[in-house]
Amino acid sequence: MTGNIAFLGYGLAAIGPGIGVGLIFAAYINGVARQPEARGMLQTIAFTGFALTEALAILGLVFAFIFRT
User: What is the pLDDT of residue 49?
Assistant: First the structure.
């Protein structure tokens, strides 16, 4: 068997941010449906959470390439 386990690790690590993004936007949609007047504030919070979650996924991808020696 050839290859590197780092890419398998990244594949498994990508599940977490995928679930996180889904939960963030599910909560955003739920919050806007309950209080439409709070859309602006909730949108800012949702995009900030999305950016932080995706940063973790990108960091995992970078580490997979760094440690593939």
Answer: 93
- Looking at the domain that runs over 12-66, which CATH code has it been given? 1.20.20.10
Q: Which amino acid is at 1?
A: M
For the full predicted model, state whether its pTM sits above 0.85: no
Decide: 56 and 16 in contact? Cβ < 8 Å. Answer: yes
| Residue ranges per structural domain of the chain | 12-66
Could you tell me how many helices (H) and strands (E) the chain has, helices first?
3, 0
Q: Per the structure block, which two tokens stand in for 1?
A: 């068997």
CA dihedral 54, 60, 61, 62 (to 10 degrees): 110
